[in-house]
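pinging the channel bc i need a second pair of eyes. not urgent but kinda urgent?? the chain im working w is below, pasted from the shared doc
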Amino acid sequence: MNLFKKYSVLVLPGRDGSGPDHWQTLWEQAFPEFVRVQQMNWIRPVYADWAVKLTEAVSHSTKPVILIAHSAGTSLTMRWTFDRPDLACKVAGAFLVAPSDRDVLEGTPDNPIKGFGPMLLKPLPFKAMVVASRNDHLVAFERALAFADAWKATLVDAGFNGHLGSAAQLGIWPSGLVNLGQFLQSLE
């Protein structure tokens, strides 16, 4: 049975929108059920703008929602969930890869991402899995562990794969698909 068919699977890329060799893009190509939440500005993300697009996508979903987020997409998920509890109740689960630490990054001169912080350290109202690398330059592994603990999420140690994006050259990221499958099974 295709577990994806019972869900609206929304893909939430981070800054720059996950290019052609990013695992999120490859997953979308492999699984037609996956739908990317398109943003107007991938280069200079602003939370208020990105939240509108996520709100629209979740509002139009007719099935329980699974969010597959990377980097700033995880920050979007976190903050939006608490800003929109009326819609977050439609989310069955979130697969959160490489959460970026907005508490450290917000306000730094070279950070083009605005309004996604602070990190909210309280339980998410749905099941979640956090996948974190031990050498991610945007989040210390200990902080990713603290996020997973606060969000009551399962943590997956992704080894030493940097920010788990295109630069990591993960391809379709088979181990990530295994983790996603295990996560979906846990929702049953």
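so Helices lie at 23-30, 47-60, 72-83, 85-88, 102-105, 141-150, 174-187. and The CA atoms of residues 62 and 110 lie 39 Å apart. — does that match what u expected or am i reading it wrong
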